[in-house]
């Protein structure tokens, strides 16, 4: 993955410059990232060709990490049909943007103890489209690659290191929500 990724570097720089303050202006960050993706779609696809054909399952690749203010930038690879469980983001703010392919994002709201969840919306992201959320313990979502054949790639910006989070699953018999702690695994580093 040691390609020269000047367009990924530009995306990282936008994330860093917009990701300031406790509550960054995420719509502005989305607009700037989106513009960059639209203007350089083919070049980005070329930069990320290895990830699109990697076929190693769902993977999270670290693009950049900054301290004070804390920001993590990742590129995720989604195999065809892959869906995440409903999961939170440890109360961090976050932005997720489609780089290649299309993703469905189901948004959920959980009560502070995570005992019940409620679906609050559904979005479809094509290349350059983004979904974002402010720092909030109650926000959770479930994402799915809408393609039956192709890997999707997404850019993720979080206001911190999303090392641990929770997944939520409804049990069949009682309909209660099961909460499970998870650890994020990194497949490797992208060198922008
Ligand atoms: Fe997520």
UniProtKB/TrEMBL annotation:
Transmembrane segments: none annotated. SUPFAM superfamilies: RmlC-like cupins. Keywords: Dioxygenase, Iron, Metal-binding, Oxidoreductase. It holds the Pfam family CDO_I. It comes from the Bacteria. InterPro entries: CDO_1 (IPR010300), RmlC-like_jellyroll (IPR014710), RmlC_Cupin_sf (IPR011051). Belongs to the cysteine dioxygenase family. PANTHER family: CYSTEINE DIOXYGENASE, CYSTEINE DIOXYGENASE TYPE 1. This is Cysteine dioxygenase. It comes from Dyella halodurans. The lineage of its organism: Bacteria, Pseudomonadati, Pseudomonadota, Gammaproteobacteria, Lysobacterales.
């Amino acid at each position: 993955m040691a390609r020269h990724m000047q367009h990924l570097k530009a995306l990282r720089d936008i994330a860093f410059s917009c990701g300031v303050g406790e509550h960054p202006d995420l719509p502005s960050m989305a607009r700037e990232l989106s513009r960059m993706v639209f203007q350089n779609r083919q070049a980005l696809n070329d930069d990320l060709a290895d990830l699109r054909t990697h076929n190693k399952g769902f993977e999270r690749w670290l693009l950049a990490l900054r301290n004070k203010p804390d920001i993590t930038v990742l590129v995720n690879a989604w195999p065809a049909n892959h869906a995440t469980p409903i999961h939170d983001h440890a109360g961090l703010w976050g932005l997720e943007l489609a780089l290649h392919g299309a993703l469905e994002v189901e948004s959920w709201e959980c009560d502070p103890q995570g005992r019940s969840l409620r679906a609050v919306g559904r979005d479809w992201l094509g290349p350059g489209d983004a979904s974002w959320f402010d720092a909030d313990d109650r926000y959770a979502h479930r994402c799915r690659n809408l393609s039956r054949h192709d890997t999707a790639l997404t850019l993720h910006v979080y206001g911190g290191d999303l090392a641990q989070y929770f997944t939520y699953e409804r049990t069949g018999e009682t309909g209660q929500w099961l909460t499970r702690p998870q650890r994020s695994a990194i497949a490797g580093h992208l060198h922008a």
